[in-house]
Amino acid sequence: MDFKTFLFYLFATILVVSGLRVITARNPVHAVLFLVLAFFNAAGIWLLLAAEYLAITLLVVYVGAVMVLFLFVVMMLDINLESIRRGFWHHLPFGTAIGLLMVAEMATVLGGRYFDADILPAPAIAPGYSNVKELGRVLYTEYAYPFELASVILLVAIIAAVTLTLRKRKDTKALNSSVQLAVKRNDRIRIVRMAAEKEQGE
Amino acid sequence: MLNQFVAPDLYPAAPEIFLLAMACVILFVDLLASQRRWITPFLSVASLVGAALLTVLTASEFSVLTFSNTYINDALSSFLKLLTYLSVATALIYGRGYLRERNLDKGEYYLLALFATLGMMVMISANHFLVMYLGIELLSLSLYAMVAMDRESVRATEAAMKYFVLGALASGLLLYGMSMVYGATGSLEISVVAQALEQGAVNKTVLVFGLVFLVSGIAFKLGVVPFHMWIPDVYHGAPTSVTLFIGSAPKLAGYALAIRFLVSGLLDLAVHWQTMLLILAVFSIVLGNLAAIAQTNIKRMLAYSTISHMGFMLLALTAGVQGGNTTLAFPAYITALYYVVAYVLMALASFGMIILLSRKGFEAEELEDFKGLNKRSPWFALMMLILMFSLAGIPFFIGFWAKFAVLTVVVASGKVAVAVFAVIMSLIGAFYYLRVVKCMYFDSPRDMTPIQAGADLRILLSINSLAVALLGVFPQKVIFLCQYVLVRTF
Description:
The complex is a heterodimer.
Chain A: H1 3-24, H2 28-48, H3 52-76, H4 81-85, H5 88-110, H6 131-140, H7 144-165, H8 177-181, H9 185-188
Helix pairs in contact in A: 1-2, 2-3
Chain B: H1 14-32, H2 39-58, E1 64-66, E2 71-73, H3 75-101, H4 107-124, H5 129-148, H6 154-185, H7 190-199, H8 204-222, H9 230-237, H10 240-247, H11 249-265, H12 270-293, H13 298-317, H14 329-357, H15 373-376, H16 378-392, H17 398-412, H18 416-442, H19 455-473, H20 475-489
Antiparallel strand pairs in B: 1-2
């Protein structure tokens, strides 16, 4: 077992264990931190595959941005663990049985025969090969259409998020200064023509 | 490698580009002209009309590929896109008054509807598994937000949440299936996958394994048993105008999804996916029809009826290939297309009816609300009668011919028992459609409030319902059109 193989097994073991801890951890903050650990190890495996751009992106985007936001949300929300865990033990045997059945089925179908390293050898890497360059090349040429579509999906996500969260409060006391400045005399006072009245009691 | 790349021809994709540009323009116009409420709906329908014109202009005799073969423009895509514009525009016009009365007629509603339309167009024109997935996500994301738009309603929020979580799960299944297809064939381009399968140098076990997940994903998007759980809750919980939207045009995109993946891509695996679809179809027809009987809410009832109708559509897809013999392939896929078109026409009008009877502060979504409709408005009671008869498959409305065509093709493929079973289930299903008719004509009304809907809704709804009746008198027209389209495509 050379050093690379050893590293792969190391990363893979920590990845699987931390993945399991994400769903079993009692404290949601711990679950998020385990997810971060899982991402780190997945990035390590990608580095072993010479996919350095994906590894860096995973760290920058997921660990750096998404998970930090996630951590904030989890800390801010007061999650009642007891109510979430209710029924956990009740559903556990059935869930485990289904899960194991699916794992067994998938293992028999896929089990190494079709996705062995001999059948799908790693492509030879030319000298001067740059992972980033290759990705950038296909992203802006062959995959330009899916790439643009992904940006449209992000636009929709922005519109949807604003629509669902923006509230116009009716009881707000905020003043609109442009309306105040543009006000005319006629907006404020009303001149009423009426006959003069005598004071009572004269 | 870099110099081999040819800049894509944008012309075949003109409708999508136009609609995207218009959506961005409307985003700004809506911001600046927020006082004039009519502008956004008007512009939205206008851009659908513009996209329709462009679709007609760019329609071609042959299949045209562009964007490095990820986009396809053929007869099927043009036909389905035109129907999509029509049904989206109809849904927007039906829903306008309803939304105004509930203070939901924000510009974002129309924008999200346009983006959902764009997603459907992408799905319809996809020649690549990845592009299809992105189209589905674009459509679904817009729909989740539209369902949740009524923030005060707990039911709508719950429906949106359910839709979102289950939709994400289905997307995961679909992606996993795609990764297996990629693993086995080394490509995600639909025509390349088909070629690789034809040459037989691929690993079929892995492909069939992936196929299971692909079919599950498709079944979820169409809403057939056992992936139907979201349908009743979403149809019931969403504002009726959104239910109308979800229940109509996305079914056309769902047909495109099934045809592009299963027929264009994986036809050589037809033996496998036909068996899967047959099981899904039979269970959908049973559950849809039986569960609908127990409903007192008409939106829920129509939701279960959708499940059974989609089951019928899948039944037609199972008849295509028999033991390597593809003579029935054309009739089967034509019939499925005809069924979807007929269903979308009927679904638009029947949800439109619920909107018609609703008014400010009142939802006419219970069966009770249809009682004595004949005394309140004989004309619309007649329209509803046409729709219910057509949905039940009573001769001679379009729904009858659609069911008849499916049964013919299923019998021709040798599955007589399945056909007989489907007929029995349809007969049981006819009960709940006829119950609505009984409510309208033989019960006394609960309230005599006159119908308050606007003239546009009344006229369009009448035309829509009369189309259901008229196309039942001349069924050959639509069948011939579907036939023309599919023969040109394949």
